[in-house]
Amino acid sequence: MTFRKKTLLACLLTSAFFGTMTSGAHAQTQSFQAVRIPDNAPKINIDGKLNDPLWQSAPVSDTFYQTQPIDKQKAHLKTEVRILYDDKYLYVGIRAYDNAPADIRAPFARRDKVSIDQDFIALYIDPSGAHKASQVFYVNARGAVMDGIYSDMTGDDTAPDYQYDVATAIDNEGWTAEYRIPFSEIAYNKDATQPWSLLVLRNMTRDQRYRMYSGGVTRAASCNLCFSDPVTGLRDLPSASNWHLTPQLVVRRAEDRSGDQVTRSASSRDLSLDLKFRPDSSTTIDGTIKPDFSQIELDAPQLSGNTKFSIFSPEKRPFFLEGADIFKTPLNVISTRSIANPDAGLRYTKRDEQKDISVLVSRDAAGGLVLLPNSYYTGLATSVTRSVATDARVNFRFGNMSAGAVLTDRNYGDGRGYNRVFGPDLVWQADENELLRIQLLGSQTTAQAGTDGNLQSGNTTSGYAAFADWYRGNDAWSYSATYKDFSKNFRADNGFFAQTGFRSVNGELVRKWGKYPPLHELNTYLQAEYKLDADGNLMSQSFTPGIRIASHYDSSAYFAVSPSVRSRIQRFGEAYDTRKILTGFALSPGRHLARLTIDMTFGDTIDVDANRIGRGGTLTASAKIRAHDRLEIEPSYAVNWIDHPGNTAISQKGRAFTETAIQLNTIAHFSSKDTLRWIYQGRHTSRNPSLYNFSVTPDSQRQVNSVVYTHTQALGKVIYLGWTQSTAEAAITSPRTKQQEIFAKFSWRI
């Protein structure tokens, strides 16, 4: 039996053994009761105050449990939930009692930027009642909102936005929130017999961070939604048929310079169109023509100068966000960022209590880069023709198990070939503390890279990818293991795979020692990895013991040592022995310095370009500063460095490589609808030519400034006015380049 088969079988047998020891699914402790509003009743005024008489007719659900800082106990503050509905809307009223209302943290925040340093409420609404995924609706005590899709597999995906109304109010008893969510914004089967389920989270940050749930969520649980409770009383719900048409107009002027020469100067007026149509409550059809993907938000800069692998970036473009959670599987087989410049797209999404289906077809313009993953680096090829990308995913639910399949196809124009991927996946949530995931994929490719770096039709190659991971935890221990096997010819042009041609096993064992005041949590852990390339050569082997602690002010810290790490960065290169120290901490000191996070690695560092070992490290730091409730400042800094120790080839010692990345994100809120955002980004890479025996670029840098004013009338009705300037310079190799753009973007939803 091969190494791969033995490991996969071991994972399956281990999970099956522990699964027989579990006690089954979470027992329901309460139910939420929804009351239908009489047809002749007055409308509810959404002002956040819960003083409409109709709220008094709704039963109160007030059983909440604390999960953080300590779980398995009743919440120390009372929270009440009431639910009403009519032919169009679902209404949820929340009262969050607070002994010190003056300490409630309620800053202004942009949409989808509600964070753990604020007082907020989150509704996890699962119309299928399957406890696998939910739509989530956040609101902080100021009334700022965040929404999206939540899954225990992938966490929050806040990219999808929904049109709903919510208001809040602070009084001498605490604060209240009043939701009005159109049924047209919730994906459900109106003929389903399974009741909806709901989980409510209340977050409060003071000298501690308190997480309080309407279900008894534990810190060891791998399935928060398993603690959701049914919503009874929802009957004769509407079909929710509706449509939205969103035209967008972008007017811009851009200029590019190389040195003192203007290389491009252009003005444009571009009109795009997005259509969303819901023929019934469980089906959504999205279409787009010439979508505009102006980068209103900038991705955070990442350290990439000392790696040969591409770095993943999350999707932010609105058209691709409907049903994005359905496309998420253990492996990134579908990454819509691979669709670089679509000029048209069509998407079908259907959700009900038994299954989820989503199919996306888009036409991508020529010029996009295609990842060509290998064992030791990520290659790139260019698609010089238009291509058609098709992504399809179906997922069926069977009690505590779900099974799905994925199909992707990229067909390149002018007969330049194709890439196709297909495979099944399985998720088994044995109980709230045990999880098993498996995914198998096969690929077939005829679009091969030519000698000129462009894709062209060539020989047919086939490959496979296999993945399995298992987790089980309780109050004293947690165990996890992950197995991956990617053949060297596996390729997924519609996904994101930076590396193939390897097999690996990773594991973690955690001992939870409990609470030792002032510590809320004291854990010791052991992590291990073993990785081989496609030829059976060792790529990496590591053994890392460590300790994690948690305490007041939502603080946490860790310290770990890797006493022996073996790594190979070239196919026929040396396997290096290295040693490292890893440490870091995070905390929320107070209202003004809302969050501070620092991570550090020190020790032996491999210089990838030179294929040698030096001494160095990496430091990353970020903060959230709320100097005023109307002002957000979010700085981040990262640095990676390598010192050459001197050897027979190059006797000189000194700093060989340094890379820094800086971002300063500043947002001023003039009102709940008007914001001004300034982002500064800087990246700088330097190498000492005297410490390399080949030619290197001594210095390169890039800077970006972006200023955008935003007026948001409502979802889909937005005005952006912006200016962006970027400069890049590499000493000796090329002249300084400068790009500048001013733009205005108008979006209005019909």
From TrEMBL:
Q: Which residues form the Carbohydrate-binding domain?
A: 46-194
Q: Is-annotated flag, keyword Cytoplasm?
A: no
**Could you confirm whether the keyword Nucleotide-binding appears in this record?**
no
* Domain (DUF5916): residue spans on this chain: 268-329
Q: What is this protein called?
A: Carbohydrate binding protein with CBM9 domain
Keyword set, alphabetical order: Signal
Among InterPro entries, the record links this protein to: Carb-bd_dom_fam9 (IPR010502), DUF5916 (IPR045670)
Which CDD domains does the protein's record reference? CBM9_like_2 (cd09618)
Q: Which residues form the signal peptide?
A: 1-27
Write down the Pfam families for this protein, in alphabetical order.
CBM9_1, DUF5916
Note the Gene3D superfamilies from the entry: 2.60.40.1190
